[in-house]
Amino acid sequence: MSGLVSLIGAGPGAPEYLTRLGARRLHEADVVFYDRLVDPELLHLAPQAELIDVGKLPRFHKVKQGRIEQLLIEYAQQNKRVVRLKAGDPYVFGRGGEEGERLAAAGIDFEVVPGITSAIAGLAAAGIPITHRDYASSFHIITGHRQKTNGGLNWANIAQQEGTLVFLMGMSQLPRIVAELRQHGKAATTPVAIIQWATHWNQRVVTAPLAKIVSTVRQQKIGAPSLIVVGDVVKLRTVLQAPATPLTGKHILIPAAQPSRLAQLLTDRGAFVGRFERSTPQPLPIKSPNFTAYQTLVVTDIVAFAELQQQLLAAGQDLRVLAHLRLIATSQRVAKGLQKYGLLVDDCMPLAQLDLTAPSLLIISAAPAQSTQGATWLATYQHRLPTQDQLRLRQYQAAIFPSTQAVADLFNSVRPSQRQQLQQLPSFAMGEQVAAALIAQGVQRVYGSQPSYTAVLDKIEGWCQA
């Protein structure tokens, strides 16, 4: 018996271009083999999977193609749900056909989950339609890499095509592509666009006539990965490119969450979002206290309260045992979380404003619980820290922290070199306590806002425009 191998196209770059079936297969996966150009955001969709980087650089293959195909077979033979995650579409110069052949020969069940090819979506992201009734009634997608055994391209045929020409993986061959097109009759004035990192936060676009595109690329220092677009449709970019917003091209780091309203709001305002891993709760066994001995219940953490409720239920009790207690939340975030349990707090105040020497206080928190004279601390769970191996902090222009726990999760799980980078990263705090936590971690540029998404988005947009 074998598992299923899914050859999934991740789309051109931006994570939201992934199909719904692709997202579901990632969530179900036991192991994911992913390419270099796949956005790390997509790996958050496979929380239980083993992640294996098989990415390839020009002229350097970390894992040879034959070995990748053998690994797909070996994992599937262990009855695993296997995902081969590729940028673009698996069957558009993605070697998906070769992998499918090997899987079929080995008797492995597999499927292809199509992706949106960058040859179309990448142009659209730059304001260039691949076809247009007035400019191009056809298009031709051509690889910049050919197997030596396949011979050369038919440049006489390619140059005479009236439709749009799109070259993938062709930047190292750009001078030759231009020379061949011109030699075989393509006009020197033909519009050309180079789109680097299409649909990513660092997308760059340059345009020039065919005769000048090589020098323009050198001057602007455009490199791979890039699309080369040749044809009159390039003229439409000045009309069709999306208007810039204050957050256009900004790469913002936020805590991982599925789904994330903050991520959606940032994306809708033109930003690109990356996420850092969060800690996961590990319940701690507790001895149920005598609740009648207390007058006030202080909740510092909504997860801690959820764990308390679960342990009460396991002991044959419910929230009615808390009915006589005055209820205090230490933040508005906790207060809103308690509302989901049908509980309205009597007050909302930080721990610093409470009399922690009062023996009538029972404080619900995560471990480690503080030790104070008077109040009783009850830790119902502890945080299991993640690793942040996928985090490339130099790619971000700012970070947003909704809670003090998000601050702790990130700073307690990074390497010393990453910590230094974080301390230099402009950070936006949703609330005074979050700002204080960032300052305590040595962050040099902290921008506080009210603890709401609207407030923090307005704050970061103002910062971008300053």
From TrEMBL:
Gene3D superfamilies: 3.40.50.10090, Cobalt-precorrin-4 Transmethylase, Domain 1 (3.40.1010.10), Methyltransferase, Cobalt-precorrin-4 Transmethylase, Domain 2 (3.30.950.10). Its EC number is 2.1.1.107. It holds the Pfam family TP_methylase. InterPro entries: 4pyrrol_Mease, 4pyrrol_Methylase_sf, 4pyrrol_syn_uPrphyn_synt_sf, 4pyrrole_Mease_sub1, 4pyrrole_Mease_sub2, CobA/CysG_C, Siro_Cobalamin_biosynth, Uropor_MeTrfase_CS. Transmembrane segments: none annotated. One of its GO terms (biological process) is methylation. Residues 5-213 form the Tetrapyrrole methylase domain. Keywords: Methyltransferase, Porphyrin biosynthesis, S-adenosyl-L-methionine, Transferase. It is an enzyme of class 2 (transferase). GO terms for molecular function: uroporphyrin-III C-methyltransferase activity; uroporphyrinogen-III synthase activity. Signal peptide: none annotated. It comes from the Bacteria. NCBIfam families: cobA_cysG_Cterm, PRK06136.1. Belongs to the precorrin methyltransferase family. This is Uroporphyrinogen-III C-methyltransferase.
